[in-house]
Amino acid sequence: MEEKKFDLNSIIGFALIFGIIVWMFYINQPTPEEIEAEKAKKEQVETEEKTEKESTTDFVKESEAIVVNPQDSVALTNAKSQLGAFAYSASLPSAKEEFTKVENEVLSLKVNNRGGYISEALLKNFKTYDSVPVYLIKDGKNASFNINFGTTDNRILNTKDLFFEPTVTKNGENTVLSMKLKVSDSKFLEYRYELKPNEYMVDFTIRSQGLQQVINSSQTVNLDWKLQAMRHAKSASYENRYTDIHYEFEGDKDSFTGQGEFDDDEEEQVSWIGFKQHFFTSILLTDTPFKKASFTSKNIASQSELDDKDIKVTKEFSATMPLELAGGELNYNMNWYYGPTDYKILDAYKRNLDEIVPLGWGIFGIINRYLFIPFFGFLSGFLPYGVAIVVMTIIVRIILSPVTYKSYLSQAKMKVLRPEITEINEKHKDNAMKRQQETMALYGKAGVNPMSGCLPAVMQIPVFYALFNFFPSAFQLRQKSFLWADDLSSYDTIAELPFTIPFYGDHISLFPILASVAIFIYMMMTTGQTMQTQQPGMPNMKFIMYLSPLMMLFFFNNYASGLSLYYFISNLITIGIMLVIKNVIIDEDKIHAKIQENKKKPKKQGKFQKKMKELMEQAEEQKKIKKK
After folding, report:
1. How far apart are CA 484 and CA 162, in angstroms?
2. What is the SS3 string spanning 542-587?
3. Fewest CB atoms less than 10 Å from the CB: which of 167, 270, 574, 608?
4. How many Å from the N-terminal Cα to the C-terminal Cα in the chain?
């Protein structure tokens, strides 16, 4: 009954995808002229970017900041005409492009006097795929943080264009950086950063003092946060699949924007916003939820550009939140998180941040949270990560071996009954109703449930899908090697191709090939066990047997090698278990003898079975009457 595992829609979908792959590969083969043109184009781009090889796209648009000499009365007067009360900040010694650095053991931040915002966020303990330090913000070019507000003298100002005065102090072991945008010594808007030892979470406060008569409370005060996601992984395309905006709203609800373009979606009572990349995330949290927030996510690199090894940024995020004044003043206690997208670290804050890690919804997420994450953490505590994957796979397959046994036993019973079913089909080939009656009667007498071979497969789906989410999200696998794979969180490479195959890539990964071969052998064993003559309208199992491994080969070539390693080992173990069951445990002659004994025993029918039989008999009688 292997056919029951696949519905017609799945077969059609697989067939369409396969057809598209073949068609795209055919029409997209590059000609020699196209290869030369692409080479020339790449050389031109490299020449243009030669002086800024390591820089990101500068998308922060800044107007010219105003700086005045306090002794220059004319300049001061001009500054007051443009900035009003905030001309005072432009006359201070801090009114220049200078940076204040604060750091702990894991995080280094640089804050610019201009705008008072973080212009550099460096994660000190991590490297990118090409051994460059991991920056979430670099040189102030890929991020901006701005408060837009109106003044009582009818001006519209932006904090990103104004100069803050920095002061560094200590609060016990914590480092405190106060950035003040002043209208006088006692009146200011303050950004306060407090960095704790060994913490990725930074306390952040926005507050004003004495600005009731300066900020226009009748106009909306907007907070705008923007970030371009910098590439950190070997495959920008794969990293981009897990790069999106996550947020919490209305207390404890969470959602995300997804991979595609997302423009100005709005939610109410937002308590945190995360600009998530695959393995690193920037999060803004607030104790006082934003009354509403709107989000935008843009793919600034096309799919073809994502395949370019020189791509530096992938997506552009923005969030806009109105801030509320209390007594004419701003007062928000917030936090910044700049750190790894690590489930254990995020979960430890107990602020629902673990939802940023895509572990799957419902039962799948529960299995990962309470089973696979702690179990893999235990194994990887004393085993190399690749070995831990192998050991976990072996244990999971052993636990599921009773399910495999029941599935194979059902297939063996169906195989024994196949000659009799074929006889019934031939005998009643022109009477579908009678054929179905006889077949169900045979199953009932033999004590065989045709669905019992499908149910074990259904039971394995939660485990299969949970692990499908677990391995790509496991931060522990990042840059951990095993055998020929230098990074279990990315694809392994045994050969580079001089061209790109659509849907496949420009490289050959060995683990997906091994997994595909194992799946093919497994499907030959299971499909051969129950293979019958192809029925009209039924899926072609031979077609599926060849298509599924091919789909595996294409789909997983760019996926995490840890996931392909799991599927390879899992299918090898399953094949071994099935060989043991077939050759050692199951005796088809005994099964046949038992079925024959069951057929001789009187079979007591339940009410449902009796009713179904009556209905089928009535339908048969009506059919005979119509023929007359």
Report:
1. 53
2. HHHHHHHHHHHHHHHHHCCHHHHHHHHHHHHHHHHHHHHHHHHHCC
3. 608
4. 37
* Cα 198–chain centre separation: 27
Q: 226 versus 464: which is more confidently predicted?
A: 226
Q: Is 465 helix (H, G, I), strand (E, B) or coil?
A: helix
Question: 248 pairs with which residues across the strands?
Answer: 254, 272
Three-state DSSP state, 298? strand
For the record, the structure tokens of 145 come out as 């943080």
Tokens of 386: 């690749």
Helices (H), 5-117: 8-27, 32-48, 73-83, 87-90
Q: Which two tokens stand for residue 583?
A: 């050759």
At 618, the pLDDT band (50, 70, 90 cuts) reads low
- If phi over 0 gives left and psi between -120 and 50 gives alpha, with beta otherwise, what is residue 170? beta
Structure tokens at 84: 């009003």
- pLDDT tens digits, 50-60: 433 333 444 56
- Lowest-confidence region among 12-21, 136-145, 203-212, 393-402: 12-21
Tell me the residue type at 244.
Answer: D
**What's the Cα-to-Cα distance from 329 to each of 148, 153, 323, rounded to whole Å?**
14, 17, 10
Residue 533's pLDDT band, with cuts at 50, 70 and 90, is very low
| DSSP result, 166-180 | EEEEEETTEEEEEEE
Look at phi and psi of residue 545 and say left if phi exceeds 0, alpha if psi is from -120 to 50, else beta: alpha
If you ran DSSP here, which 8-state letter would residue 160 be given? Answer: G
Q: Are 563 and 468 in contact (CB under 8 A)?
A: yes
State how far the Cα of 261 lies from the Cα of 295, in Å rounded to an integer. 11
Query: Left, alpha or beta for 251 (phi > 0: left; psi -120 to 50: alpha)?
Result: left
Pick from 430, 427, 448, 447: which is nearest to 438 by CA?
427
Structure tokens given for 478: 């990042």
Q: What is the pLDDT of residues 181-230, one digit of tens each?
A: 998 999 999 999 999 999 999 999 999 999 998 998 888 999 999 999 88
How large is the average pLDDT for residues 263-290?
A: 89
Return the closest-CA partner of residue 373 out of 237, 467, 301, 505.
467
Q: Is the pLDDT of residue 143 over 80?
A: yes
Measured CA to CA, the distance from residue 255 to residue 114 in angstroms comes to: 33
Q: How far is 151 from 162, CA to CA, in rounded Å?
A: 14
- CA 385/CA 390 separation, integer angstroms: 9
Q: Residue 278 has which token pair? A: 């695959």
What is the reported pLDDT for 466? 86
The token pair at 332 is 């928000």
**Percentage of the chain surpassing pLDDT 70?**
68
Q: Which tokens sit at 240?
A: 């981009």
Instruction: Name the phi and psi angles at 51, rounded to 5.
Output: -80, -15
Q: Which residues contact 181 (CB under 8 A, 6 or more apart)?
A: 86, 89, 116, 159, 162, 163, 164, 165, 188, 189, 190
The mean per-residue pLDDT over the stretch 553-578 comes to: 85
Q: Is the dihedral of CA 275, 469, 21, 538 positive or negative?
A: negative
Q: 10 Å Cβ neighbour count for 287?
A: 10
Residues in the chain, how many? 628
Do 196 and 276 contact (CB within 8 A), yes or no? no
| Range 400-411 average pLDDT | 72
**293 vs 225: CA distance, rounded Å:** 11
- Asked whether the predicted pLDDT for residue 332 surpasses 90, the reply is yes
What are the φ and ψ backbone dihedral angles of 209, each rounded to 5 degrees? -140, 125
